[in-house]
Protein backbone atom coordinates (compact mmCIF):
# COMPACT_ATOMS: atom_id res chain seq x y z
CA UNK A 1 0.00 0.00 0.00
CA UNK A 2 1.22 3.48 -0.87
CA UNK A 3 0.84 5.63 2.23
CA UNK A 4 0.90 9.36 1.55
CA UNK A 5 1.73 12.19 3.93
CA UNK A 6 -1.92 13.05 4.55
CA UNK A 7 -3.31 9.53 4.62
CA UNK A 8 -5.94 9.45 7.31
CA UNK A 9 -5.83 13.20 7.94
CA UNK A 10 -9.04 15.17 7.52
CA UNK A 11 -9.95 18.28 5.58
CA UNK A 12 -11.32 20.87 8.01
CA UNK A 13 -13.49 23.79 6.92
CA UNK A 14 -13.32 26.92 9.07
CA UNK A 15 -15.20 30.17 8.64
CA UNK A 16 -17.86 32.46 9.96
CA UNK A 17 -21.54 31.51 10.12
CA UNK A 18 -22.84 31.61 6.55
CA UNK A 19 -19.42 31.19 4.94
CA UNK A 20 -20.55 27.96 3.27
CA UNK A 21 -18.73 25.33 5.33
CA UNK A 22 -21.63 22.85 5.33
CA UNK A 23 -22.48 23.42 1.65
CA UNK A 24 -18.86 22.99 0.61
CA UNK A 25 -18.54 19.81 2.71
CA UNK A 26 -21.64 18.42 0.98
CA UNK A 27 -20.03 18.93 -2.43
CA UNK A 28 -16.46 18.05 -1.50
CA UNK A 29 -16.92 14.83 0.46
CA UNK A 30 -18.50 12.84 -2.42
CA UNK A 31 -15.99 14.25 -4.90
CA UNK A 32 -13.14 12.78 -2.82
CA UNK A 33 -15.13 9.75 -1.74
CA UNK A 34 -14.66 10.73 1.91
CA UNK A 35 -17.19 10.75 4.75
CA UNK A 36 -18.75 14.13 5.56
CA UNK A 37 -18.63 15.14 9.21
CA UNK A 38 -20.81 18.08 10.27
CA UNK A 39 -19.89 18.97 13.85
CA UNK A 40 -23.05 20.99 14.56
CA UNK A 41 -25.26 18.22 13.21
CA UNK A 42 -23.42 15.54 15.23
CA UNK A 43 -23.68 17.64 18.35
CA UNK A 44 -27.41 18.25 17.86
CA UNK A 45 -27.99 14.57 17.17
CA UNK A 46 -26.14 13.45 20.29
CA UNK A 47 -27.78 16.10 22.48
CA UNK A 48 -31.22 15.47 20.96
CA UNK A 49 -31.73 19.24 20.86
CA UNK A 50 -31.08 22.11 18.48
CA UNK A 51 -28.09 24.39 19.03
CA UNK A 52 -30.49 27.26 19.75
CA UNK A 53 -32.11 25.13 22.49
CA UNK A 54 -28.71 24.17 23.98
CA UNK A 55 -27.66 27.83 24.13
CA UNK A 56 -31.00 28.86 25.66
CA UNK A 57 -31.16 26.03 28.22
CA UNK A 58 -27.52 25.37 29.15
CA UNK A 59 -25.66 28.46 27.92
CA UNK A 60 -22.81 28.97 25.50
CA UNK A 61 -20.08 27.54 27.78
CA UNK A 62 -21.84 24.15 27.88
CA UNK A 63 -22.19 24.22 24.10
CA UNK A 64 -18.47 24.98 23.70
CA UNK A 65 -17.56 22.00 25.92
CA UNK A 66 -19.58 19.67 23.71
CA UNK A 67 -18.13 21.26 20.60
CA UNK A 68 -14.53 20.63 21.75
CA UNK A 69 -15.31 16.97 22.48
CA UNK A 70 -16.78 16.54 19.00
CA UNK A 71 -13.86 18.33 17.34
CA UNK A 72 -11.33 16.15 19.14
CA UNK A 73 -13.14 13.01 18.04
CA UNK A 74 -13.64 14.13 14.44
CA UNK A 75 -9.99 15.10 13.99
CA UNK A 76 -9.06 11.46 14.51
CA UNK A 77 -11.23 10.47 11.54
CA UNK A 78 -10.72 10.60 7.83
CA UNK A 79 -13.23 12.90 6.22
CA UNK A 80 -14.36 16.40 5.38
CA UNK A 81 -15.22 18.24 8.58
CA UNK A 82 -17.58 21.23 8.59
CA UNK A 83 -16.99 23.07 11.87
CA UNK A 84 -19.19 25.63 13.63
CA UNK A 85 -18.16 29.26 13.16
CA UNK A 86 -17.04 29.65 16.77
CA UNK A 87 -14.65 26.69 16.83
CA UNK A 88 -11.59 28.95 16.84
CA UNK A 89 -12.65 30.92 19.93
CA UNK A 90 -11.22 28.35 22.38
CA UNK A 91 -7.46 28.04 22.64
CA UNK A 92 -7.86 24.30 23.23
CA UNK A 93 -9.58 23.96 19.85
CA UNK A 94 -6.92 26.05 18.14
CA UNK A 95 -4.24 23.74 19.56
CA UNK A 96 -6.16 20.69 18.29
CA UNK A 97 -6.40 22.24 14.82
CA UNK A 98 -2.71 23.13 14.73
CA UNK A 99 -1.74 19.64 15.78
CA UNK A 100 -3.97 18.16 13.05
CA UNK A 101 -2.28 20.49 10.57
CA UNK A 102 1.14 19.10 11.48
CA UNK A 103 -0.28 15.60 10.89
CA UNK A 104 -1.21 16.54 7.31
CA UNK A 105 -4.75 17.89 7.68
CA UNK A 106 -5.86 20.54 5.21
CA UNK A 107 -7.32 23.36 7.31
CA UNK A 108 -9.20 25.83 5.17
CA UNK A 109 -10.52 29.26 6.11
CA UNK A 110 -13.42 30.25 3.85
CA UNK A 111 -13.13 34.05 3.97
CA UNK A 112 -16.35 35.86 3.02
CA UNK A 113 -17.31 39.55 3.30
CA UNK A 114 -19.63 40.59 6.16
CA UNK A 115 -22.43 41.83 3.85
CA UNK A 116 -22.59 38.43 2.14
CA UNK A 117 -22.48 36.59 5.47
CA UNK A 118 -25.25 38.82 6.85
CA UNK A 119 -27.45 38.17 3.80
CA UNK A 120 -27.01 34.40 4.14
CA UNK A 121 -27.60 34.45 7.89
CA UNK A 122 -30.84 36.40 7.36
CA UNK A 123 -32.14 33.59 5.14
CA UNK A 124 -32.31 31.34 8.23
CA UNK A 125 -33.80 33.53 10.97
CA UNK A 126 -33.57 32.39 14.60
CA UNK A 127 -31.14 29.55 13.95
CA UNK A 128 -27.96 31.27 15.23
CA UNK A 129 -28.14 32.24 18.88
CA UNK A 130 -25.12 34.55 18.68
CA UNK A 131 -26.98 36.66 16.12
CA UNK A 132 -30.66 36.23 16.90
CA UNK A 133 -30.38 35.18 20.56
CA UNK A 134 -32.56 37.94 21.97
CA UNK A 135 -34.65 38.80 18.89
CA UNK A 136 -34.37 38.33 15.16
CA UNK A 137 -32.20 41.21 13.89
CA UNK A 138 -32.76 43.10 10.64
CA UNK A 139 -30.16 43.07 7.84
CA UNK A 140 -28.15 46.10 8.90
CA UNK A 141 -28.11 45.04 12.57
CA UNK A 142 -26.99 41.60 11.46
CA UNK A 143 -24.16 43.04 9.38
CA UNK A 144 -22.97 45.17 12.32
CA UNK A 145 -23.04 42.14 14.61
CA UNK A 146 -21.15 40.06 12.04
CA UNK A 147 -18.48 42.77 11.76
CA UNK A 148 -18.07 42.96 15.54
CA UNK A 149 -17.64 39.21 15.97
CA UNK A 150 -15.47 38.86 12.87
CA UNK A 151 -13.05 41.47 14.12
CA UNK A 152 -12.17 39.12 16.98
CA UNK A 153 -12.32 35.90 14.99
CA UNK A 154 -10.67 36.73 11.65
CA UNK A 155 -7.10 36.59 13.05
CA UNK A 156 -7.95 33.31 14.78
CA UNK A 157 -9.25 31.69 11.58
CA UNK A 158 -6.16 32.95 9.78
CA UNK A 159 -3.78 31.59 12.41
CA UNK A 160 -5.34 28.11 12.40
CA UNK A 161 -5.69 27.68 8.63
CA UNK A 162 -3.04 26.39 6.28
CA UNK A 163 -5.10 27.53 3.28
CA UNK A 164 -7.25 30.66 2.94
CA UNK A 165 -9.86 30.85 0.16
CA UNK A 166 -11.61 34.08 -0.82
CA UNK A 167 -15.20 32.88 -1.04
CA UNK A 168 -17.06 36.08 -2.04
CA UNK A 169 -17.33 35.27 -5.73
CA UNK A 170 -17.25 31.49 -5.53
CA UNK A 171 -20.08 28.97 -5.34
CA UNK A 172 -19.85 25.97 -3.03
CA UNK A 173 -19.21 23.77 -6.10
CA UNK A 174 -16.35 25.97 -7.27
CA UNK A 175 -14.76 25.96 -3.83
CA UNK A 176 -15.15 22.19 -3.63
CA UNK A 177 -13.45 21.81 -7.01
CA UNK A 178 -10.46 23.93 -5.90
CA UNK A 179 -10.14 22.03 -2.62
CA UNK A 180 -10.42 18.64 -4.30
CA UNK A 181 -7.56 19.60 -6.62
CA UNK A 182 -5.45 20.78 -3.69
CA UNK A 183 -6.10 17.58 -1.79
CA UNK A 184 -5.32 15.39 -4.76
CA UNK A 185 -2.03 17.25 -5.28
CA UNK A 186 -1.12 16.39 -1.68
CA UNK A 187 -2.09 12.75 -2.18
CA UNK A 188 0.16 10.97 -4.68
C1 LIG B 1 -21.62 29.49 16.01
C2 LIG B 1 -21.84 29.03 14.73
C3 LIG B 1 -22.84 28.01 14.43
C4 LIG B 1 -23.10 27.12 15.64
C5 LIG B 1 -23.43 27.97 16.84
C6 LIG B 1 -22.31 28.94 17.20
C7 LIG B 1 -20.62 30.57 16.22
O1 LIG B 1 -22.42 27.21 13.33
O2 LIG B 1 -22.00 26.31 15.92
O3 LIG B 1 -24.61 28.70 16.56
O4 LIG B 1 -20.20 30.80 17.37
O5 LIG B 1 -20.21 31.20 15.21
P1 LIG B 1 -22.39 27.72 11.80
O6 LIG B 1 -21.09 28.41 11.57
O7 LIG B 1 -22.48 26.45 11.01
O8 LIG B 1 -23.56 28.60 11.60
Structural class: alpha/beta
Query: What is the H/E order?
Result: EHEHHHEHEHHHEH
Strand order of the largest sheet: 2-3-1-4-5
Form type: globular
How many angstroms does the end-to-end distance come to?
12 Å
In DSSP terms (H or I, runs of 4 or more residues), the helix count works out at 9
Helix content: 55-70%
Secondary structure elements and their pairing?
Elements (H helix, E strand, L loop, with lengths): L10 E4 L6 H12 L3 E3 H9 L3 H8 L1 H15 L5 E3 L8 H12 L3 E6 L2 H9 L6 H4 L6 H22 L2 E4 L5 H15 L2
Parallel strand pairs: 1-3, 1-4, 2-3, 4-5
Helix pairs in contact: 1-9, 2-4, 3-4, 6-8
Bound molecules: shikimate-3-phosphate.
Please summarize what this structure is.
This protein is α/β, with parallel strands linked by helices and 188 residues long. Helices cover 56% and strands 11% of the residues.
Kindly describe this structure.
It contains 9 helices and 5 strands. The protein has helices at 21-32, 39-47, 51-58, 60-74, 91-102, 114-122, 129-132, 139-160, 172-186, and strands spanning 11-14, 36-38, 80-82, 106-111, 163-166. Helix 1 (21-32) crosses helix 9. Mean pLDDT is 94; it is low at 1-5. It binds shikimate-3-phosphate. Residues 17, 21, 40, 51, 84-86, 128-130 line the site of shikimate-3-phosphate.
Amino acid sequence: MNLSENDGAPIVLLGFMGSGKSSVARKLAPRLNLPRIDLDARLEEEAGRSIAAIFAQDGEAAFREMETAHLQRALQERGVIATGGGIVTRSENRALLKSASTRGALIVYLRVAPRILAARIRRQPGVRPLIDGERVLNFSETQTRVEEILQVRAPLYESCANLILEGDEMSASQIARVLAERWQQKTP
